Amino acid sequence: MAAADAPVSELQARSDACAARLCAADRVLLASHIDADGLTSAAIAATALERAGIPFETVFEKQLDAESIAAIAGREYGTVLFTDFGSGQLDVIAEHERAGEFVPVIADHHQPADADTEFHLNPLLEGIDGASELSGAGASYLLARALAARSTADERLDNRDLAALAVVGAVGDMQASQGALHGANAAIVDDGVEAGVLQEQKDLAIYGKQTRPLPKLLEYASDIRIPGITNDERGVVSFLDGVDVSCRADSEWRRWVDLSEDEKRTLASALVRHAVSRGVPAFKIDRLVGTSYVLSEESVGTELRDASEFSTLLNATARYERADVGLAVCLGDRDGAFERAKKLLANHRRNLSAGIEWVEKHGVTHEDNLQWFNAGSEIRETIVGIIAGMSMGADGVSRDVPIVAFAKKSDDETKVSARGTGPLVGTGLDLSAAMGEAARAVGGDGGGHDIAAGATIPAGAEPEFLERADAIVGDQLG
Length: 478
Ligand code: C5P
Ligand code: C5P
Ligand code: ZN
Hints:
With 478 residues, this protein is an alpha/beta fold. It has helices at 6-23, 36-51, 66-74, 90-98, 136-151, 163-172, 184-194, 214-219, 233-241, 261-277, 282-286, 307-318, 323-330, 336-362, 384-391, 422-426, 431-441, 462-477, and strands spanning 28-33, 56-61, 79-83, 103-107, 119-121, 198-204, 248-249, 252-253, 289-295, 365-366, 371-374, 403-408, 413-419, 445-448, 452-458. 45% of the residues lie in helices and 15% in strands. It has a six-stranded mixed beta sheet. Strands 2-1-3-4-5 form a five-stranded parallel beta sheet, with helices on both faces. The chain starts with 5 loop residues before the first helix and ends with a helix.
């Protein structure tokens, strides 16, 4: 990484302080978040601790709150390493630290709370954007590099091979949603390329290039809606039959990865021509091409080969109480855990498409400054945020105002997920502040990032919460 870059070298200094503390610990409790970024964070940290010879145990939490932090303290580890969360809960964590229960080490990228602590690695503390320039896995990667530098003189063991997992985490957190990773993330990509574990390719920016048969690839691509293609099975087949590429081999549909570079170019140009002829605006057509991150050491045609597919596979485990499966895959299990993860993925996919259909069918309600839906028990609270984000731009859901989604967490609590867009953040939207303030006003709590945030509130408080959130977002967008 560029030493001349002041914020990055400040982050490296923080990484080194955190690494020093970990090296001084007898044993460490590693606590991480249950999504793709949290799993990859844990896998990076676990591998680095293992290589450094530091004994540790790993736990996952759906949400880090007073109760789960107290349970962590009860484990009686002198040092607790929090990855992909911790910054937002520092007020509570610092109380346990003051009580002498444990020393926290934090590698996170969420909006920090008011309290601070000595071993705190977070891009936002150095003016680096935690929603688009560095993920939890990226912060964990910096820590892993610092740990390697302290614990071994062997340059081959510099932990740069872990850059591939860091990229999966960043992509899973939608940090490449503008077409490519940038900022500190781009430096991690460079590390991965140099270490031979990553390839960066300009390619079709559609999800499923490794595993989906061509018709499904195009039919399900919903980020950019193309009439006659998106959700149109017959349209797709007639389009593919009209292109000068053999899309079938032995009567089976081929996948994008099965095509030669020439065939890919021919098919991509035909797709662009089709989109133009159906009136898709130029700025959307530009988004059909983007940067793909390929994990060079994984088998071609598997979910693990592409950072985006890998991250969805991980969400399919951890968001369904099977973080152990996702972690094992990240740590290299290509047998039992990978097979199990693929089964979980099929279930996750069904839930995502059923969830989006539910939102389209029931619609959203518009307030002055936001739109919302309440899925009750119809959508799992652990994936309602993903569905809220994916539904922006679907039938009846605007991309011009933020979306707030509710789902039942328990009889007493409601989960809230909110999603915005880059342009809205550009005009002042800060969903982390809005969710946090509105939730605390009704006896709950929340936080996250400017573009994506969440909260937990008492059941029944939804109307008052909405009124407050609507007013706060109104002030932000001025
Ligand atoms: O807790 P964590 O930071 O890992 O969660 C980030 C969430 O925010 C992910 O669900 C991701 O999809 C969402 N996000 C988003 N757009 C961004 C950044 C994050 O929807 N640009
Ligand atoms: O759960 P969801 O994907 O909607 O979360 C979006 C972002 O908000 C994540 O970064 C998550 O860590 C954060 N969040 C939070 N406090 C909550 C719920 C979510 O900080 N109570
Ligand atoms: Zn994250």
